[in-house]
Amino acid sequence: MTHSLSHSIGVTVLGSTGSIGVNTLDVLAQHPEHYHVVGLSAHTRVEKLYQQCLQFCPLYAVMTQESDAKDLARRLKQAGLKTEVLVGEPGLLHMVSDHRTHYVMAAIVGAAGLTSTLAAARAGKRILLANKESLVMAGALFMETVWRNGAELLPVDSEHNAIFQSLPRGAMRAESSLQQSGVRKILLTASGGPFLHTPMEQLRSVTVEQACAHPKWRMGRKISVDSATMMNKGLEVIEACWLFSAKPAQVQVVIHPESIIHSMVDYIDGSVLAQLGAPDMRTPIAYGLAWPNRISSGVSALDLFNQRQLNFLPPDFERFPCLKLAYDAINTGGSAPSALNAANEVAVAAFLEGRIRFDQIATVTAQVLDRHHGVSPSTIEHILAIDEEARIAANQIISAWS
Ligand SMILES: NC(=O)c1ccc[n+]([C@@H]2O[C@H](COP(=O)([O-])OP(=O)(O)OC[C@H]3O[C@@H](n4cnc5c(N)ncnc54)[C@H](OP(=O)(O)O)[C@@H]3O)[C@@H](O)[C@H]2O)c1
Questions:
Q1: Is there an atom of ligand 1 within 6 Å of 117 CB?
Q2: Is 21 touching ligand 1 by the criterion CB < 6 Å?
Q3: Which residues, 6+ apart, have CB-to-CB distance to 168 below 8 Å?
Q4: Distance from the CA of 22 to the center of ligand 1, in angstroms?
Q5: Nearest Cα to 32, choosing from 50, 52, 49, 8?
Q6: Atom number in ligand 1 closest to CA 92
Q7: Ligand 1 close to Cβ of residue 282 (< 6 A)
């Protein structure tokens, strides 16, 4: 459903209080003539959602907990707003399926974003996909739902957005293949995170603050830790396979510490097309909102004369075992990526809570995958059951250590 920029487009932002959510609202606020906010959602941050409601006056706001929703509804009423406050997953599903929602920014973090993102696909919306975990967990089902319902999928992850921009138009259609487009490889760039050059023996003792201090991007804590382990890049390899119908061997990770080139496409005639820009998520967000047009995003022009050099390195699987685990999972296929994602989410949460060491995130994930009996899930219920089973296994492994 491509809307002309001459009509106001209704946008629902799932996870509006997070890093991507806030950046999305920043871009929307720059274009009140083109977009209006239909719905917003938060998990824990009631005050932030309240402030966002005051600014954007949405039709809907969703909180996970009923008590938070009641609190928010009372305050919004006192402020004279007519925003309807809904609760939990049923609230998210109602909001994304409403006919006044044209575009859905899927920016809830982790597996918690799957059901609502899938509902947006089922309702045939334009989905701006930040929640890569949806594709990692349910790639086949998700893509099939998008195609069957005529939804539009625009990747917001900066790398996938760059690849999308570097591919010919239509290359993401169900019936097209990379081969038909003359693509040899997708070159998925990665900054390498904060520990690219840290002595290996020190990785045992890195702190949460160090792991969350990404050298180039300001992001939520979970994705920041994923970037430090490079599991984020592994999840992105899986995401790229589903988005662009690529085989894992066609997706080459390239470490590029400057984070200026956001990814590239290598063609059979020797051409390599790339998308460059300052590391700021408002660029891919604005692209997803305006595609096939362009709108300003608030991001400054790239100062090429200030880039003294651009470096490229191959990934080191010994330093970043999570990246290898992700390649193994997508090569195995079936339910392995779901189990990988769930185990990683549990392990990252345990690291953030100080219950395991940084290097144990990979150990937990590897052990869960070793125990996992692969199947080929075809329903959302089955996928969620696999997710739950892998979480139980990961928690058992962590509990046995303490
Ligand atoms: N940040 C980036 O630059 C970036 C780049 C590319 C892709 N992504 C992807 O975008 C997604 C969001 O990342 P982020 O960095 O914006 O994360 P974040 O800052 O942690 O924000 C996550 C959002 O999801 C909400 N949320 C968390 N748990 C939830 C649950 N169980 N149910 C419903 N809502 C929940 C949070 O609500 P509260 O804040 O109210 O708790 C918040 O609004 C992730 O999938 C990430 O991989 C992010």
A1: no
A2: yes
A3: 181
A4: 10
A5: 8
A6: 33
A7: no
* Calpha distance 322→359 (Å, rounded): 10
Instruction: Give dist(CA 114, CA 95) in Å, integer.
Output: 15
Is residue 52 lining ligand 1, measured as CB closer than 6 Å?
no
Closest atom of ligand 1 relative to the 108 alpha carbon: 24
Q: Is 107 close to ligand 1, i.e. is its CB under 6 Å away? A: yes
Neighbours of 199 (CB within 10 A): 7
**What are the structure tokens assigned to 328, written together?**
């193994």
Q: Does residue 194 have a cis peptide bond before it, meaning omega lies within 30 degrees of 0?
A: no
| Ligand 1 atom 20, closest CA | 220
Q: pLDDT per position in the chain (402 positions), as tens? A: 455 555 899 999 999 999 999 999 999 999 999 999 999 999 999 999 999 999 999 999 999 999 999 999 999 999 999 999 999 999 999 999 999 999 999 999 999 999 999 999 999 999 999 999 999 999 999 999 999 999 999 999 999 999 999 999 888 877 778 999 999 999 999 999 999 999 999 999 999 999 999 888 889 999 999 999 999 999 999 999 999 999 999 999 999 999 999 999 999 999 999 999 999 999 999 999 999 999 999 999 999 999 889 999 999 999 999 999 999 999 999 999 999 999 999 999 999 999 999 999 999 999 999 999 999 998 999 999 999 999 999 999 999 997
How many Å apart are CA 220 and CA 379, to the nearest integer? 29
> Which protein residue has the closest C-alpha to ligand 1 atom 45?
131
Which residue's CA lies nearest to atom 34 of ligand 1? 43
Using DSSP bridges, classify how beta strands 152-155 and 183-190 pair: parallel, antiparallel or unpaired: unpaired
